[in-house]
Amino acid sequence: MLELNASDERGIDTIRIKVKDYARTRPMGDVPYKIVYLDESDALTSDAQNALRRTMEMYTHTARFILACNYSSRIIEPIQSRCSIFRFRRLFDKDIAAMLKRIARTEKLTLEEDAIKAIIYMSEGDMRRAINVLQAAATVKRKVDEKAVYDVSASARPEDVKEMLEAALAGKFEDARSKLIGMLIDQGLSGEDILQQVHREILSLEIPEPTKVKLMDKVGEVDFRLTEGANERIQLEALLAHFSLLGDRLRTT
Amino acid sequence: MRMSELWADKYRPQELGELVGQSQAVREIFSWAESWRKGRPNKPALLLYGPVGTGKTAAAQALARQMGWDLVEMNASDKRSFDVIKQVAGTAADTGTLFSGAKGKRLVVLDEVDNVYGVADRGGYRAIGELIEDPRNPVVLIANDQHEIPWQIRASCLMINFRRVQQDAIIGALQKICLAEKIEAEPIALKVIAETSNGDMRSSINDLQALAEGKKHLAMKDVVLYKRDRESNIFDVLSQLMRATTAKQARELLWSLDMPPADVLAWIDENIPKVLADPADLAEAYEAIARADIFLGRTKRRQAYRMWRYASDMMTAGVAMSRKGELKFARFQLPTIIMKMSRTRAARATRDSVAKKIAGRCHTSSHVVRKDFLPYFGVIFRRDKKAAQQIAAELHFSEAEVDYLAKK
């Protein structure tokens, strides 16, 4: 099997030489086909995709192609025509729950309902992340409860984040700030992780919809400053102050 | 266990007559091939063009087999610079064959000629042009988009159009395959497969194989097909976006859309002014679009993919929540910027090559030439034919470049 992903050199010459040479030679041993797996194939330039299209069908007696991508609309039509298409959807919560329970059964773990909910919350549809969190929590204790999950993960409890935001909106800036510092210092969470949760919680706050948009924009701005190397404590405090200001405006109007 | 072949290969037409739904094209190809028997036709090269999966390459291969011609094929998976084309195809086109001696013919097939690349395949079109000018052997060029091919080449080819295959013809072909594979298929199942393929014979065979291989019976309920999609549901997303009442609703619309954020933004940008009636709404929506654009820029510049999320927020929730007033009824349309860019691609390429030639001669940059020189050159080329001729000869302007300046 030949695997190429976006970090490999995949210009038109690679497709013409490396992939073609691999595809056209006979497989060794008792296997019927070679497999060429092109990960993130929507990142191939359209020139490279065009160089690939005939190779895909000229060497079908020696090789099969599997292309994976985020956006099938970025794959040129001639290649789509040569493929069977399978679309992978975002996983539902119940799918992740079922998988977690199955693992718990085979690994003989006690897995509490609260813990499942917590894992689903922090995995955001990412099965790999969900399984990793479960494994980490299970190495600490065979009985996995909500607390164990939050202890091993880089997430704050959603209720904590929500309380912090509501305090800020209610004008209790210092309360909000001490909750923030608790997460940053005591729990050792990163500013980025907290921001990501703030972003999620905004949607379920009880404030007017246009205000939510303004807050999300502000979160994005703060997040950008963090990527630029700004101090996460100061930036998050500034964000909370902004929440307080908007809360104040909502009360007076 | 012996693994199966691809059905698209297994049932590839062996003779031109087996080609599905292209009777007109097949007749023209035949009469062109017949005239090669008598000597050399007026137009020694064929250009087969049309959408994917309609049988162009299969036709060329079937033709060689039926006429008893050897086949030499080059496609985009080969390097196709001037030298390579001259060497491979030129030799093939000018000499007799190994087995039949000087009397035998070879069919030279250049597949995917709309994809000869500027840098990697330098001089490729020039070589093709020289090749088809006076060959001793028949030449077939194949392309999806005939407009991408220089007109000088098109002019010396007999152009044959392959159309999207009619649904009934596809259904008939699928039925034949089912019969050969001993699969009983519900007619409605085959109809759905044919419909989904949108006239692409090959993809319908691929879909049939993915769904039915190894089965004895193919029922409608087994048919789960994913469209080889284009911008089909962006229209739905746009119209739902304008009616979304919560930020959450608006954000989640993007999940069902198979399109990168930058493309979605182009669609929103194009269509927002068509539906927002109130100038205040429009200004606010554009502020959100502009913020989305800033976040996209940050994503790209810093390779910080976290920023994508905020770009999506602003282009969906941001735009949706800007609206307070009425909506106008409007038909959404493809971003004009995309159409304009592709329509003017050739003109821009000509402009750049003109600028480069002048820049080299005048010891300045192409940028300065485009800004400060080209308008004067335009005046000269329109008004003073004699001076224009001298300049064109001096700087080796091509016909297209002279045209470009004269119309400027």
Report on the structure:
The complex is a heterodimer of chains A (253) and B (408). Chain A has 253 residues and is mainly alpha-helical. Chain A has three domains: 2-81, P-loop containing nucleotide triphosphate hydrolases (Rossmann fold); 93-152, Helicase, Ruva Protein, domain 3 (Orthogonal Bundle), CATH 1.10.8.60; 158-252, Zinc Finger, Delta Prime, domain 3. Chain A has helices spanning 12-24, 46-58, 77-81, 93-107, 113-123, 127-140, 146-152, 158-169, 173-186, 191-202, 209-227, 232-252, and strands spanning 2-4, 34-38, 63-67, 110-111, 143-144. In chain A, the strands form two sheets. Chain A has a three-stranded parallel β-sheet, covered by helices on one side. Chain A has a two-stranded parallel sheet with strand order 4-5. Chain A is elongated and about 70 Å long. The N and C termini of chain A lie far apart (65 Å). The model of chain A has no long low-confidence stretch (mean pLDDT 89). Chain B has 408 residues and is α/β, with parallel strands linked by helices. Chain B is 56% helix and 7% strand. Chain B has a five-stranded parallel β-sheet, with helices on both faces. Chain B has a two-stranded parallel ribbon with strand order 6-7. In chain B, helix 5 (124-133) links the parallel strand 3 (106-110) and strand 4. The model of chain B has no long low-confidence stretch (mean pLDDT 84). Classes of the chains: A mainly alpha (253), B alpha/beta (408). Chains A and B meet through helix 1, helix 2, helix 3, helix 10 and helix 11 of A and helix 9, helix 11, helix 13 and helix 14 of B.
